[in-house]
Design brief:
The structure is a homodimer. Chain A has one domain: Tetracycline Repressor, domain 2 (Orthogonal Bundle), CATH 1.10.357.10. By secondary structure, chain A is mainly alpha-helical. Chain A is built from nine helices and no strands. Chains A and B meet through α6, α8 and α9 of A and α6, α8 and α9 of B. The structure holds a DNA duplex.
DNA sequence: GTCTATAAAGGGATAGAC
DNA sequence: GTCTATCCCTTTATAGAC
């Protein structure tokens, strides 16, 4: 897909650092100097690992991030047996990762890059994040375990609720994020029981 | 509180435009040129209305935005009588406003401005957005209408779920945002029923 | 109130030394 | 692989004309 230098240890470090920063703050809010500083190298040195510049770096690590979420979510969800444990697995995965703010990505990051890349990433976000979780609700719906609500909406709601726990500043945390996540899953399950 | 030129019609237009752009895309992603372009004037002309520059503009309009939310939420919630209509009123208010992404604001915008202003805005966000909605859950909890869950968490969850509807791209909208909001409120209410 | 011109700093990108 | 030096464009901000 591209003509990068051979994948080295060092290149991985660059991608990991950039991935974390972009996921947390977004495209415009992160400069290449921020990335370089976090790595302890100079900004120009980044171009050895990422010759195509900032936007290409953003697209590459964002796609990677989404794919890792897809893999992590599918694996953990697949390994869980009940509806509740599947949702817990999904929530715990999301809590274990650097917060990736889907809302910001769609509203702010996507308008700052080329439209072609933006729609590619949007599609990837759809089937890497929304679909694996929507699937849970779809299956539970067809077997009558829960009401049949719009599954994409439910997946989006669950993701944004869990993501909002990641964004919550420490001093508002009366309980741990995992405990709150479980409460919210209980709320969802009770709220979706067939009436 | 500050030494702005007399509040004119023109200054209001500037603030409104800046407010909308900053709320949608965030501090770093909006340039003063973007604001000026949207107004049809030159970037330097902004300084007549906002002599203290970009950060001061951001802080002023973000505070204004939060205060308007506080007023709008409190008014609409106060005018509603039942638990459900209060939550609907809050959701409809949020849907009626330019999407203000709290998560992005906390994670990205706040680290880009001076820490003092950041913590001021954080506090304002807390009592302008979270508290009015948390209040609904608190009151409903004490009279036994719903389970007593962490009300701040519930408020945060509701806000982020509704905000995520604003961010949803048009082509994923199988139903209107208002319809989805009602479904989600139903889910919350069913999920919070005393067991 | 808005303009042009311009200073000053920031940020992306390239060239070439080591 | 990383550095320094440098280019160039963007962005913030100021000065002064109209």
């Amino acid at each position: 897909m591209s003509d990068q230098p051979p994948n080295s240890e060092a290149r991985e470090r660059v991608l990991n650092t950039a991935e974390k920063l972009f996921a947390e703050r977004g495209y415009k809010a992160v400069t290449l100097r921020d990335v370089a500083d976090a790595l302890g190298i100079k900004q120009a040195s980044l171009y050895y690992h990422v010759p195509h510049g900032k936007e290409a770096l953003f697209v590459e690590v964002t796609e990677r991030n989404l794919r890792r979420h897809q893999l992590g979510l599918k694996t953990l969800i697949g390994a869980a047996s009940s509806l509740r444990t599947k949702l817990s697995a999904a929530a715990n995965w999301l809590l274990s990762q650097p917060p990736m703010d889907l809302g910001r990505m769609l509203q702010s990051d996507m308008v700052a890059i080329t439209p072609e890349e933006a729609s590619r990433l949007e599609l990837i976000a759809y089937d890497a994040l929304l679909m694996p979780i929507a699937d849970i609700f779809i299956r539970a719906g067809v077997v009558g375990e829960i009401r049949q609500e719009n599954p994409i909406m439910l997946a989006g709601a669950l993701i944004s609720v869990i993501e909002s726990l990641c964004a919550l500043p420490e001093h508002y945390l009366t309980q741990s994020r995992h405990v709150m996540a479980e409460s919210l899953i209980t709320l969802f399950l009770d709220g979706l029981r067939v009436r």
